[in-house]
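Quick illustration, no need to memorize.
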Amino acid sequence: MNRERLISTLSKPFGRSALRGYAAIILFTVLWELCVRFKVPIIGNVPTPSSVLLALGGYISRPEYWQSWLASMYRVYGGFLAAQLLGIPLGLYMAANRTGLDLVYPQFEILRPIPPLAWMPAAVIFWPTSDSSMMFLTFLGAFFPIVLNIVEGVKSTDKRYMRAALSLGFTPRDIFRHVLYPACLPSIATGMVVGMGAAWMVVIAAEMVSSSAVGLGQMTWRAYVVGEFPGIILGMVSIGLAGYLSSTLIRILSRYMTPWLYSR
């Protein structure tokens, strides 16, 4: 990345679009506070943002809060990385090889509709620890979106590029390397973003179900059990922030993967 692009990337959190987003968050928080204080019926027992902010001071001083962050991120990133290491080569193989697509795609389509949480009983049997079983579930959440996006990305590649490559004497390997692979890089990036979001949803649900796990999901569930309403909101905000930061890292990586999309 050249100097101008680096400056542009670093300045995005302070750009016009970002400032509009910050203003929207502030406006939403103010409306939330007013609705609770004036007892708007649809709000119910939702705590005020000010009470959540007061609870934040107590939470961040506890080691358990940061241990929950680390535990959830360990499971998400472990399963996500495994999904990319297996899903990207499999997706490229299925997309570039008609025989491979015919052999693998039927099994893929049978397994894909099964929700990752439906795998939980099997994961507990297959994997010896709660961490490894939940990492397996996050792997499933991220695996199917990346494979499907790659296959669809290659299918949508303009056939004129491949005909032009053939007319220039390209071999099938050259076509894959110089035409198909660059063409599906945006789809890989999209699949990674979708897969990261799915991984966070799966791990939070798995942590809530597993009473012995430490993580943001279990922290939120325990706050509900003891009736600590600000803790519930704080847990939800922490989960959202963790997912946002993870997706932002993927989008930054996608700028390196597909620099021609950001050259303007």
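Confidence is low (pLDDT under 50) at residues 1-7.
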